[in-house]
Design brief:
The chain is of the alpha+beta class. The chain has helices at 4-26, 192-202, and strands at residues 29-34, 49-54, 74-75, 90-91, 108-113, 129-136, 148-161, 183-190, 205-212. The chain contains two helices and nine strands, in the order αββββββββαβ. The protein starts with a helix and ends with a strand.
């Protein structure tokens, strides 16, 4: 039979284990999160970030633990409010495009001039896939040129306004300022084999962008 001392030792051990588990469950680690929506082309300011307490096992690798580690750096991609900010997700300088996207290796970024009616009513967003169709302009295009598909299934890298800056639809955007700019161009990633053909059509054609749904 188990003696009283052995039972006491077992009880003390169980109590120690339970205490350790309870203590661990109370532990919290400070991590940096986005205080509101962050753009990929603006350096982070003090009021852009906040601290949140999480259990250690809920903290992802690379999470920042001090707001000083984030202030002055630039997100590589937009962040939503409350998103945990990771060190590798920040850069020293702004991304080339407002979206934070870059052309895949071996491809080029080209701006396609469009109006809202030629680009899904202006509803296109970075990351979408589109076909680029060139429609010849009478009097500018060579005789006999027909409507043609000049680039198939390309990725939208950014959407720009007529003034050349990032296009922000009315009612969206960071802060109180709202852009009233009109859609001016859509930046797409093209293979080198397509870039010359698209560039040649810019002066003689109008473009229509056709949205391609991507299966989930």
């Amino acid at each position: 039979m188990i003696g009283q001392r052995a039972l006491l030792a077992i009880a003390l051990a169980c109590g120690a284990i339970a205490g350790t588990i309870y203590y661990a469950s109370l532990q919290r680690v400070s991590i940096v999160v986005a205080a509101h929506a962050l753009d990929a082309d603006k350096a982070i300011a003090a009021d852009d970030v906040a601290l949140r307490e999480l259990p250690p096992d809920a903290v992802p690798e690379g999470a920042l633990h001090s707001t000083d580690q984030a202030i002055g750096r630039v997100p590589r991609a937009p962040h939503w409010p409350g998103q945990i900010i990771l060190g590798p997700a920040l850069a020293a300088g702004a991304a080339a495009f407002h979206s934070g996207l870059v052309p895949p290796a071996g491809q080029r970024a080209v701006a396609i001039p469009v109006t809202p009616s030629q680009a899904m009513g202006g509803a296109l967003m970075a990351g979408a896939h589109v076909d680029v169709i060139a429609v010849p302009v009478i009097g500018r295009a060579p005789a006999g040129r027909v409507t043609e598909l000049v680039a198939a299934n390309v990725t939208v890298l950014d959407v720009r306004g007529e003034a050349g800056g990032p296009f922000v639809p009315i009612g969206q955007g960071r802060g109180a300022a709202v852009s009233l700019d009109r859609l001016g161009s859509v930046v797409v990633a093209l293979a080198p084999v397509d870039e010359l053909r698209v560039a040649d059509r810019i002066a003689t054609s109008t473009f229509v962008l056709v949205f391609i749904p991507i299966p989930e």
